[in-house]
Specification:
Accelerates the degradation of transcripts by removing pyrophosphate from the 5'-end of triphosphorylated RNA, leading to a more labile monophosphorylated state that can stimulate subsequent ribonuclease cleavage. The chain is of the alpha+beta class. The protein has three helices and eight strands; from the N terminus they run ββββαββββαα. Strands 1, 4, 5, 6 and 7 form a five-stranded mixed sheet that branches. A three-stranded antiparallel sheet has the order 3-2-8, with no helix packed on it.
Length: 165
């Protein structure tokens, strides 16, 4: 299940990984973004790929940084074969996002082998989430910010066979 055959991300998009963490029941881990409230404050772990970093290594690093769940507590069960992209809305195309029109993501599906007590949202100095829960995969597009919904619809389609029925 190598990502070596995946071409470079589209021009103008920041390379990024997304992680769908499935529990043994087929539910997916979702976190509430720190400092955000409302229905669309939720998302799966995701983050940038460092220069010269392997895509799989970036996925495992981001999962650990954002959830405290280390590589020994997961197994990789799939990944997208192509980059999924979303554009930043105009109000985000300033500041730290001004160099990119959006993000291109390779999504990983991981099976969680640990227990809920292994989740440590404050494991990293930069805390991304202030709450979390297990959720049905098909509900995710309605929980994320609107500009990410098409990507979430695609990952529901790509990884639906892994989800709780």
């Amino acid at each position: 299940m190598s990502t070596e055959s995946i071409p470079a991300p589209p021009e103008g998009y920041r390379p990024n990984v997304g992680i769908l963490l499935f529990d043994m029941r087929g539910l997916v881990w979702i976190g509430k973004r720190k400092g955000f409230n409302g229905q669309h404050a939720w998302q799966a772990p995701q983050g940038g790929i460092d220069r010269h970093e392997d895509i799989e290594a970036a996925a495992l690093r981001e999962l650990s940084e954002e959830t405290g769940i280390g590589p020994a507590l997961v197994s990789i069960i799939g990944h997208t074969q192509a980059w999924l992209t979303y554009d930043f809305p105009p109000e985000m195309q300033r500041g730290k996002y001004r160099r990119n029109k959006g993000q291109a993501q390779i999504w990983y599906a991981l099976r969680f082998l640990g227990s809920d007590r292994d989740v440590k949202l404050n494991a990293h100095k930069q805390v991304e989430f202030d709450a979390w829960r297990w959720e049905r995969l098909e509900t995710l597009p309605d929980l994320v910010v609107p500009f990410k919904r098409d990507v979430y619809r695609q990952i529901v389609q790509d990884f639906g066979h892994l989800a709780a029925g």
